[in-house]
Design goal:
single chain, alpha+beta, Immunoglobulin-like
């Protein structure tokens, strides 16, 4: 049995419309079941710095803690944290990478702060947690 081209084109259009309708419904259903990202907060502070005895460099430690609003503290263990440093021109560059330890705590050692610097801790987020930035951490220049 032969089918005309016009009838075959109409049947193909109907099949395509039904396929689009079905996939649209499944896409809407999967979008409605997607969980929103959990909010996170990143706090940071600088410890007391010191000048090394045999080197003219100022060494300081920056500690931070990543916390989540609605999940247990153990869930943020092992998250990747980035330490950024502000350049003289005002651009932020990546200084170091680190991972959070137990209960979301992280620590960085920074050197070469003879003229002072401004730092920021950044959590870039993942599929479960939203992004967060710490407040800028200003380390004053070394005075003699």
């Amino acid at each position: 049995m032969f089918v005309s081209k016009a009838l075959a084109a109409k049947a193909g259009a109907v099949v395509a419309t039904l396929a689009i309708g079905v996939t649209g419904v499944t896409a809407a259903a999967s979008a409605s079941t997607a969980k929103p990202k959990t909010g996170t907060e990143l706090t940071a502070k600088a410890g007391p710095g010191h000048v090394r005895k045999h080197s003219p460099h100022f060494v300081d430690s920056i500690t931070g803690q990543l916390t989540s609003t609605s999940t247990p503290a153990g869930d943020v263990t092992g998250a990747r944290i980035v330490l950024k440093r502000e350049t003289k021109k005002g651009h932020w560059v990546v200084e170091q990478f680190g991972r959070t330890g137990r209960f979301g705590k992280v620590r960085f050692r920074v050197r070469g702060l003879k003229h002072g610097a401004t730092f920021e801790l950044v959590f870039r987020g993942n599929k479960n947690f939203s992004r967060s930035h710490s407040a800028p951490i200003v380390i004053a220049p070394v005075t003699k």
